[in-house]
Protein 1
Amino acid sequence: MRHWLFFLIMLTAAAVSVSAKTTTVYEPPFRPQSAEIMAQGGSFNANGSGFYSLFSNPASFADKDASLTVLSTSPWLYALPTAAVVDSLGGMIEDPESGIIGLNDLLTGPGFGAGVSVGVGYVGNGLGLGLVNVADVFAQGPNTLGVHVDSHITVGFIGGFALPVRLGPVTLKIGGAFRPMYRVHVPELGIGTFARLLGDDSDGIQINEPVYHGVGLALDAGTIVTLGPLSVGVALRDLFGTAFSYSESTVTELMDALKAVSLPEGGELVGDEVRFVVPMTVHAGATFHPNLGAVSRIIDPAVHLNWEYPVTPGQDTGSLWTSLHAGTEVDFFSRIRLRAGINQGYLTAGAGIHLFFADFNVAYFGRELGSFAGSKQNQGITAELALRF
């Protein structure tokens, strides 16, 4: 297994550096900030199940317990909802510049942003299907004038299969998935320009900063080996790297398209000199889920960890701590779930409640934006409200 893993990593490295004349820009993965996952330290590889296994290990599709998510909506905030933050966000509606000034300490420090995801999906009995929209905005800079806003809106379909194989006491699950996606990427928009877009007088303003929009096709593969209470999983997300075929337009053209409830018209094709790629990410993890018999109906604990390595040749991938995720979940009466974990060296915590067909989950998390744990922490909160059967 180690030889195959090394071969895949080297092959990916060669593929993304095939042309010395092409600049590679690494895009963020297609993944919502799930309250269920982030509360557990971002670890969801060998222990993944249900809707959010669409964004982790496709081998989880082989689970016997099927889950139908009629609707899942998750908002998140890359900051803590202090009184100052809430007041600034509220004031931004009437006076965008004043609201942004109120967030200055965050914007020039750990950063500030928000996002939301909306999706539907079915997972279980060897099948994984989902349709999800993820929008994410994050702003940060060394000083007020140097703050830039980076935005992504991605719509993706996930389709995958998994097969369980029993080898005596060992169960082997093997799965794969494909993800066609459409993404709109507004890179590094100046904070002043962003404030003008939020203002009442935004109509008629010509903003010629670039907007990239186009399609990409991702492939995922994974396996989970289970022996008694112990499971070990390996997943390759965005196999060989997922390249987006982008066209370039302007911010004004994008805003006009949104007002007309349409997609931006095709602009100049980007790709000869710049290559936009979501890097392949290698996940390796384990979970310990003891079978407590009849007691598990009252209390059902599990602990797990996951090592995550993005294959980004030529870039610093960070330290061991920034790649490590660990967490635990304790299920009480199959209704209440308490969660905690460590995400890139920072504590996380959260809870969930399941009532009839409704799921509500909430989480606090910290994440590392620098190369080493403790160098550039960004805190946040996320929640989910879902209807599941």
Protein 2
Amino acid sequence: MKNLKTLSTYASEFITRTLVNIERGVRHTDRIHGPSGIGKTAIIKQIVERLTEITGNEWGFATINVANHGAWDLIGVPNIVEGKTTFAAPEFLPDLSKPGTPAFGIFFVDEIDKAEGDMVNAMMPLINEGKLGSYTIPEGWLIIGAGNRLADSAGSRVVPNVANARRAIDVGIYACPDELVEYAAKSDWHPMVSAFLKFQPQLVHEFPNGIESKKAKTITGFACPATWEITSDFLHYDFKPEVLQGYLADGVLSEGVAIQFCNFLKVVNQIPNFGSIFRGERPEVAANKPDIKWALISNLAYKVSANLHFSDTQTLDDAWSNAVSYCHEVLGPEFGATFVRLATAKNPELMETAVYRDYKDNNQDLFLTNR
């Protein structure tokens, strides 16, 4: 696929299409394709949450992982009722007769590329019409399928199938460094992960460019959004660098990326004191140390959003104002705008402050280009 979309772009456009389709009374099925570990399931759950907010109706989420099921799991067990064969719909399918099932929702068919034989045939009417035997998906529910690419060596068994291809809208997606950094800030990831990815954005997903498909079959870990989240968890264990690097190299990020990341962590000892910056002091950072600057703004954003490192007499507004002016004037406008973006992503209430409004009004060009 050539016309790839970021996760955020896909989510925004899917919501726009869905709202129009609801008004028109039509329904389409999407089939998204992207490299392993990109966060396909997470983005679908975010779409469900966003549709709940926008429409004012509760949206549900149900899923099946095709790799773990056979055709009969999907179609259901046959029963004889009044001399006729019927099929008992499986429990994971949305059913409005069950208490608590919302009238609207998304049924997510994951690992769709791993379907074989009868499972491919069973999915065709589900993907195209929302039907399985006597079962019909509720009118307010949408279907999204997801799978890996053949090039990913992730077990995909996809072969060209004209009958299957026409039954869904295929969309290619990829991991965007800026989007992942903002997601990390909102999701309370360790700030050093965001700092590193701002410094080395090409490593947000190592697989597409850094690993040959043949080699992929022999490794146990590689850098991708899913493993960066695991890395964030490991940082909370306070392991010594050599211990941390061992875990990340063998089973999480791969050796090359783990070495780069652990070397990056060593700059923490060179980061100026956060409290002094919040108090209005302006420690210098060498212009040739962008790694330290990225680490500094990521940690500042985390701490100002969590009201950390403030004195008893200092207000959030004072600390926020001092941090914004320091990042913009001492570290540079690009770092200032990125700091503001990270801090407000984690704590949207900061966007209600006069500090934020004034800064954005005075630096509109940075907010348009710093994405």
Protein 3
Amino acid sequence: MKIEKFEMMRMQCLYEKEVEFDLSETTVLPLRVSELLDGEDDVERFIANELYYPESEGSQLFRERIARFYMDCTPENITVTNGGSEANYVTLWTLLEPGGRLACMIPNYMQAWGLGCAYADGVDAFLLVMQKEAGQYRWTLDVEGLKRAVTPKTNVILITNPNNPTGAVLTAAEMDAVVDVARKAGAWLVVDEVYRGAEVQGGTTPSFWGRYEKVVITSGLSKAFGLGGLRTGWVVAPPKLIEELRVRLDYLTCTPSLLSDHLGTIVMEPQRRESILARTRHIIRKNLPPIEEWFLKRDDLFTYVRPEAGAFVYCEYKLPINSTELINRLRVEQSVLLTAGDQHGLDKGIRTGFGYDVEKTLKGLDRVEALMRSLK
């Protein structure tokens, strides 16, 4: 079986610790373990944990609390994984098959694209497209393109909502259109919702869970929760499919981390969960305005589209240079790391994270501008 290189992830793994300005991150300033534990009793209970193998599917209480993040969901609909990436991997490994095809939303994180090429007969793309509405640009779903991408061979449709890298959130009408296409095809609908809860405006994005009998949700604590170091994800699916996923997880990491399960259970207590998501939204809403102003003042270089969720901005640029070539030059010449449009299925665009130190982010962007102006 041939595996395509996961270009964006490989680049981040190689260089994110080597540059002065890492603007490739898509989450917010992470929480500390001490911020999750309340007082000495909590700390004592945590450090007194015996490091035995935990429940392979995640503890009952953790799964109960995850289930409360979704309507009409039970612990039997949940299995816990080591990160959202493993949730995506085991789901697509289970559902994709020779003779079938994956229909994949573009732009995207591109993990699914690589897995579709490996496990199915191929991948068909459907697009989010940039449109101008009421004087502002936004990303919208090309519904007709989705219908064309879903063929009689399609057995899985992959959506990322909120989207990475654009930060777009599907409207209710777009969500209905996706479900309608999936239902007519009889295809599984896999929705990566890992940025759900990190909205620029309003409350938590509605989930696809419960809208169709063949929906699978993947998510985790890395992005909207700012807890990537826990490496904790989950899959929400019909119980029969959950059992199939667990059979395959036996060949992977077998169980989640016991300590991460303990901390995840604390995080997903409903009141604590909403407090953490409120913190994330506060950081995003505080940091975005100066980043937005920076891009809008440089409209000779960029086409700015405001994200609807996530601590990142995706902008197309107006230069005759390939996006991977551009970010490699930025890394080598300016010690700035971004992700490239063609690492997300597009080109002539860059993704910039802004969830950490906003002043440092702006200094990094100034270096981006310096190189880009030298190329005009």
Protein 4
Amino acid sequence: MNNLRCLVIDDEPLAIDIIENYLARLENIEATRCENAIEALKLMRDASFDIIFLDIEMPLLTGLDFLKSLANPPAIIITTAYRDYAVEGFDFEVVDFLLKPISFARFMKGFERAVKTLKATGAGESSKKEDFLFLKVDKSHIKILVDDILFVESVKDYVRLKAKENEWISYQSLTAITEALPADKFLRIHRSFTIALNKVGRIKGNYVEIAGELIPISREQKAMAVKRIMNENAGLK
């Protein structure tokens, strides 16, 4: 199984700190935090997660309303101080219900249930996408090795795909080509850019540098993007 991508959603920073501390004791975990469900929905437009730790009582959008808005939710673990939500939570087929304050032992039981669920459904496994893709350019289809791709940029109705030795313009959406790339190696860091995480040469302010080009990182994506880039590029300065 690849690194598990976990999202912790809670309006109490201390509650997030506790879950993040528990996750930090485990191996092969990428944790992202959100202090409200609205922020989480924005984040999930461009990023996928394997496990979500979800509080219920939150301003703007409750955890249950957040769940109702998800078409294909990942493994969900509810974390709340209110026992009364247990029955309603399980109506959404959540993996587990953790009552605050959450001990590490109880956290691990829920986490293992989530991992078992992911294994049973095949989620979280290594990407089954091919190591190449065919890009339509004019009237031809060009075979491009995924490992050669540096980044993809949206330019109105087209995308510019930049590779190690060449670049191409193709009439398609950035969303479509991002979905064709392995999610553990590529990340959409801006509405106009998807990058190869292991091709980043430098992080500077709100930009990453790849092959001499500066690429912006959106404010919503920055924390997660920097963490995933650092994980993919050990020792990056």
